[in-house]
Amino acid sequence: MLAVLYILLSFATGFCLIETQLPKLSLISEKTFTGRQISLSKLFVLIPAWYCSGTLAMTWPVYILACLFNKNDNNLMIANTIVMSAAAVYIVISLFLLLKKRQRRFLADIKKLTLSELIILALICVLICVLMFRTLSNKDGQLYVGLSVFSDFSTHLSMIRSFSHGSNYPTWYSFFAGQDVKYHFMFQFLCGNLEFLGLRLDLAFNIPSILSLISAYMMLYAFAVKLTGSKLIGKLTWAFFTFRSSWALFEYIKNIDNGHILKTLAENTEFIGATNHEDWGLWNLNVYCNQRHLAFSLTVMILVIMLMLPPLYKMAERLKGEASVKSFFMNSLLAREGWAVKDLRTCIFAGLILGGIGFFNGAVLIGTVMILFFIAAGSDQRLEFVITAAIAGGLSMLQSKTFIDGSLFEPQFFYGFLSEPRTLFSSIDFIWKMMGIVSLVLIAEFVIVKGVKRYLMICFSIPILFSFYVSLTPDIAVNHKYIMMAIMFLDIFAAELVVRLWRIKSLMVKAVTVIIIACLTLSGVYETEIVIKKNNDESAFKFDNEDPLTEWIWENTDAHDIFLTGNYYLTPGGYGSKILLSGAMIYYGWEYFTWSAGYDTDARGYLVHNIYSCSDPDLLYDMVDETGVKYIVVDERNRGAEEYELCEWIFDLCYKKVYSDGEGYDQISIYDASEKLLMR
Fold it and tell me: I need a surface site. Which of 193, 300, 560, 665 has the fewest CB within 10 A?
């Protein structure tokens, strides 16, 4: 199958890129940042690096070529043929050169994997597969979409289908057709391309999602071990990353009547928590089920930071014993060593892969640059950071200029994030309730650690400060990703303190350590259970794989034909979901998705409401022509609209009906706006 071949070629391309262009990456797991020897398998770094770099190296060219050949009906197949063929040639040539050198010994890398690492990693893989297939699967000819993800999947699946069954080049946002695409869509393009190449929709979305999240886990473990020199700390970091710290479970239990605690906990299927939007599953593993594109970019983020950290340690070692402001200025900021470029290849590679995720997940790119800026401030070789930032920024700006009219972000001061009221004390209370005991653990670790580690804790905390002071989009809730990035790194230091306590030879301290671990993980464990319980077959939204309306759209409309519809999102039943799952371009989809992405929803919404309530044929023609829509849909969503009163008869009078199904209130009618029945 071509889709499987594409994935294999991505891995192989990444392998050849790393081995030929960045061979030093295979040495990154041999020592800690301080130079202490560690016995860590290179595969924890290399496999995720192969996957991410190879996927970026293949997916962007396929997309670019598909855009260049967009006048051809087979543009995506042409693009895939060219890129996959070029990748195969590159792989053969690279493998020939590598085999001549005989430098790679994978058997030794595999033997370095310990039994405990294999067991835990296997359990992580099982958990990830369960989560992904519980939230999206295919059974008995139907697509099952989980209850906890259906909202965001409205846009994800629609965009995927706009590529796999359409020709969305130049790319539009399928929920706000006819304008630029402000939403980072490249992961959806990757999945759409895999469906186009033969994978079933659920597999095309699930397989890259599973590979991405496993890669993030592997890279995080490698980073934790390289930072601390302890595999136990790495394994605890896995646990803390999986099961987030929070007081949510304890607050929930406190409000349950005595005698009913176990029964209530067992029956509950709603997300818990005391802060705003925790009922969305805003901080637990549901995020990685819901926002599948996040894990891929987090893997790149960890890899880039890992590659760029050595200069920080070099400066700390060079200035050891001279820790003063004067010494820093004279021997670092104003010294050649502070700015010299010693590893050009690494900083170029870091800039390329970081810039490559700009439209996979822009927030991760921004968060990475933030952290790197502060790391660079305390490092040697600052010009390497400048080169990385310049390349990543240049690629990001090129993507933004290509896809977006105007500016992608409009930064504005917004204090307090989701705390209410937005004051200093409410913000502290929000962090305390949301993060739980890990906040105390991190404060204790910050007091204990010295030197570079303390500085890194500050660097990794910057995205949290950013999320509480700056809003880049109309919806401040999207800043939660910056907090999750920060906590992901800070969990390493929390794990380090826990291990430090455990190594104290005191039964009392060990008992306290067990209690701390329980407080750090129990809320996350329970929330993971909720994600699994919430997404069962009974509660899932089910959609027929072979639907007449969806297939009619594929067979009779073009990819950039715009549909005027009700305010759609995925719902069980109704015709709106069938239109969304076709990948059709909707003029005005569910407004939360478009508003939070930065589109002007008010003007377009006002026009749509006027069209559906219009009773004057001439005015109707003028308004519809203004929208540029090709098809007008009238169904139960319009008939039940609260914003306007539908004037249905006028569409039968003015336009040719090209599709109809159902009866009465539930009937759907689609009119061709280019086929006017009245002379003007």
Answer: 665
For residue 354, what are the contacts with CB-CB under 8 A and spacing of at least 6? Answer: 300, 301, 304, 365, 368, 369, 388, 391, 392
The two three-digit tokens of residue 459, written as one number: 């660097």
Query: Where in 321-454 does DSSP place strands (E)?
Result: 412-413
Q: Using an 8 Å Cβ cutoff, are 56 and 395 in contact?
A: no
Name the amino acid, one letter, at 431: I
Pairing of the two strands 631-634 and 668-676: antiparallel
DSSP string, 472-495: SSS-GGGGHHHHHHHHHHHHHHHH
Does residue 333 surpass a pLDDT of 80? no
Q: What CA–CA distance (Å, rounded) separates 533 from 147?
A: 10
- Three-class secondary structure of residue 257 per DSSP: coil
What six digits make up the tokens of 280? 């969305």
Taking the complete model, does pTM exceed 0.90, yes or no? yes
Determine the angle formed by the axes of helices 507-534 and 438-448, rounding to 10 degrees: 140
| Backbone dihedral region for residue 470 (phi beyond 0: left; psi -120 to 50: alpha; all else: beta) | beta
d(CA 76, CA 74): 6
Cα–Cα–Cα angle for 220, 222, 223, rounded to 5 degrees: 65
d(C-alpha 634, C-alpha 618), whole Å = 19
- Find tokens 């030197």 and name the residue: 451
pLDDT in tens, 547-571: 999 999 999 999 999 999 998 888 8
Cα 363 to Cα 471: distance, rounded to the nearest angstrom? 12
